[in-house]
Amino acid sequence: MAKIHSSFICQNCGAVSQRWQGRCDVCGAWNTIVEESPAGGIGAKQAQGARKGRVFSLSALHEIDQKPSPRLHTGIGELDRAMGGGFVPGSIVLLGGEPGIGKSTLLIQACAALASQNQRVVYISGEEAVAQIRLRGLRLDLGAARVELAAETSVEDIIATLSQGQRPAFVAIDSIQTMWTDLIEAAPGTVSQVRGTAQALIRFAKTSGAVVILVGHVTKDGQIAGPRVVEHMVDAVISFEGEGGQNFRLLRSVKNRFGPAGEIGVFEMTGQGLAEVANPSALFLSARQTNTPGAAVFAGMEGSRPLLVEFQALVTPSPLGTARRAVVGWDNARLAMVVAVLEAHAGVKLSQYDIYLNVAGGLRVNEPAADLAAAAALVSSLSGQSLAPDAVYFGEIALSGAIRPVAHGPARLKEAAKLGFGRATIPPAKPGKGEAEAHNLRVENCDHIATMVAAIAAASGHAGKKQSAR
Question: CATH number for the 70-278 domain, one of 3.40.50.300, 3.30.457.10, 3.50.4.10, 1.20.120.420?
Answer without folding.
Answer: 3.40.50.300
